[in-house]
Design goal:
- It is built from eight helices and eight strands.
- By secondary structure, the protein is of the alpha/beta class.
- It has one domain: TIM Barrel (Alpha-Beta Barrel), CATH 3.20.20.
- The chain has an eight-stranded mixed β-sheet with strand order 1-2-3-4-5-6-7-8.
- β1 and β2 form a beta hairpin.
- α7 crosses α8.
- The longest helix has 13 residues.
- The mean pLDDT is 96.
Length: 231
């Protein structure tokens, strides 16, 4: 698996666990507000880290680290993702997978084999605004819907999350998102933060008060809606 970033310890990426985070390169979306632009647009510009280096560190940290978060980019583009997860789990680690949900066929296979222990799926926008938010004009929304259904029907913990961006999102669409995700385990609204590596500059964050209103709209249909990264 092509690994272009490795955070050796994190208390944030895997809820409730001390973990390490692996970053894969490449993505099938081009979200203009993406903060990992280099990993998405030009992963080959980043240093390549071998699986063996990552696994050696995980072996050394057994008993201290509890889990591994695999993020990107989009991990489901990696042809040997399942093999890497098997190797990590053979060492006794829990595995959290971050995904945009656009490859439900891959997600289904991983879930059927019981490989991820937790899945966090990004919800980019309400259905009608998904192509703009994902930067993909010919986006097939049924692929997103299929991944949502797979997680709902599965047996492992999961969450949905939206990075909320002024210029991309509108307050009223969060009621539509709430309807779309009705009955889900957890939905998080994450505050946007500018970075030097964002794909398209010029976007801004909503205020905490504005995001609270969005959470309240989604909360009409979802029991657990919380804000993240909001001051």
């Amino acid at each position: 698996m092509k690994i272009y970033g490795f955070q050796k310890t994190t208390l944030l990426d895997y809820p409730g666990h001390v973990a390490a985070t692996v970053f894969t390169g490449g993505c099938n979306f081009r979200c203009p507000f993406c903060q990992n632009g280099s990993l998405v647009l030009d992963p080959e510009s980043q240093p390549l880290i071998s699986e063996e280096e990552v696994l050696a560190h995980l072996e050394k940290r057994r008993g201290i680290l509890e889990g591994v978060c695999i993020t990107g980019g989009e991990p489901t583009l990696q042809p040997d993702l399942a093999g890497f997860i098997r190797r990590v789990k053979s060492m006794g680690y829990l595995v959290k997978l971050d995904t945009n949900g656009y490859r439900p066929e891959v997600l289904r296979e991983l879930l059927q084999e019981g490989l991820p222990d937790y899945v966090a799926m990004d919800i980019k926008a309400s259905p009608g605004r998904y192509p703009e938010a994902a930067g993909l004009k010919d986006l097939q929304f049924q692929r997103i819907s299929e991944s949502i259904c797979l997680l709902r029907e599965g047996k492992i913990p999961w969450e949905f999350r939206t990075t909320v961006v002024k210029g991309i999102h509108r307050e009223e669409e969060f009621e539509e998102i709430g309807k779309m995700l009705q009955g889900c385990q957890a939905y998080y609204l994450q505050g946007f933060r500018e970075s030097d590596d964002v794909i398209q500059k010029g976007y801004e964050a909503f205020s905490a008060e504005e995001m609270k209103k969005m959470a309240d709209l989604a909360g009409k249909y979802i029991d657990k809606v919380q804000l993240r990264g909001v001051e």
